[in-house]
Each structure stands twice: as C-alpha cells, then as structure tokens.
Backbone:
C-alpha cells in the first residue's frame, strides 16, 4: 500500500492498532499461482513479533503456505468518507473540494509456521480463548475440534502502518473536517474523530 510520510504509523502505534482490531485478512501468495489465497480470520498478537491463529484443516491456504511461508496479515478498521466540500480550501467552491476516505490499515509481513502437533494447537487455542472468552472450557476436552484444525504461528518481519487522516493539513482544515464528521455521525466517523485528535 502507498504510505505518505504524513500517514505513516510508528511501530508502537501500528501494533497497538493490531491489538485493538484482532480480525484481519491473511494473504498467502504461494508459488506460481494466478491469484493469492485470501482468508479472513481472527488472530492473537501475543507480543511485538508473534501472531497466533488457527484455521480449519480443509482451508485452501495451507497448500499456499507450504509452497511459500511468506504471508501478509492485513488489518483495516472503520473507514469514513470525507466529503469534498469539507476539504475545500476557504474561498473555494465547495463543489470543487477533493473528497477522500479516512482509514487505518496495518500490514504485517510474516514468516508462517504451520502447527500440526496437538500441544502446539492447544497452546494457540488456549491463548485465543483466554483473550476472547476467559474461563472457557479447556480445548483439550474437545478432541473433535482439535483434529479439525491446524495452527499458525506467524513471526512478524515487517510492520507497515497507515493512518490516513489528513495529518499533513493545517489545524483549520482539520477542524472543518472534524465539524463535518461530528455533525454527520455516520459509521466510522467516531473512529476518524478519535484518530484526528
């Protein structure tokens, strides 16, 4: 993705965003494929360099990862359409303002390790359940579940964060856009306002 310097997220900011948005798209290019395999998935960022997740055994991504363990985990959260009139410079016809979309996106380039042994899969399941549903029963007591999945341990090699909220514009411009977002109150507008402040 294109990241202008004023939109670039620091590593800490990008990882915090991934922690707060633990659902993304796993992309595996494989080798000599017409298109990559793309899978939406829940995941757990366990530390600054490790992501854990599990998927069903019949998932087509396994073959692509076996061909090439380099994958991307892409996380994108709420977006907000910004009307052209809100971005028009003072004294300019609002109909000539350039619209855009505000959004956050982080892409993690990772090395994927497929986990097939029971203890490794249990570690992944326990980590995810402890994070999402503390107190849930022990997955070791669900042998059917365990046999129907494979785990993934992703080691993060590169973090690319983009936080596109007109960070290069002056305070007056940003105040005009914030006013429009506040008045509209549509999906994604509250998230945009939080990132703008």
Residues:
């Amino acid at each position: 993705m294109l990241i202008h310097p004023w939109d670039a997220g620091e590593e800490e900011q990008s990882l915090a965003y991934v922690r707060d948005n633990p659902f993304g798209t796993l992309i595996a290019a494989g080798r000599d494929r017409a298109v990559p395999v793309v899978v939406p998935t829940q995941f757990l960022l366990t530390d600054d360099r490790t992501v854990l997740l599990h998927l069903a055994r019949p998932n087509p991504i396994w073959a692509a990862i076996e061909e090439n363990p380099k994958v991307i985990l892409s996380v994108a959260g709420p977006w907000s359409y910004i009307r052209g009139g809100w971005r028009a410079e003072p004294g300019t016809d609002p109909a000539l303002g350039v619209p855009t979309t505000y959004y956050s996106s982080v892409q993690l380039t990772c090395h994927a390790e497929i986990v097939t042994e029971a203890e490794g899969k249990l570690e992944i399941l326990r980590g995810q359940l402890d994070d999402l549903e503390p107190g849930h029963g022990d997955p070791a007591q669900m042998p059917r579940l365990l046999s129907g999945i494979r785990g993934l341990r992703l080691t993060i090699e590169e973090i690319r964060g983009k936080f596109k909220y007109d960070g290069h514009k002056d305070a007056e411009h940003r105040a005009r856009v914030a006013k429009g977002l506040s008045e509209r109150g549509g999906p994604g507008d509250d998230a945009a306002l939080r990132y703008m402040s």
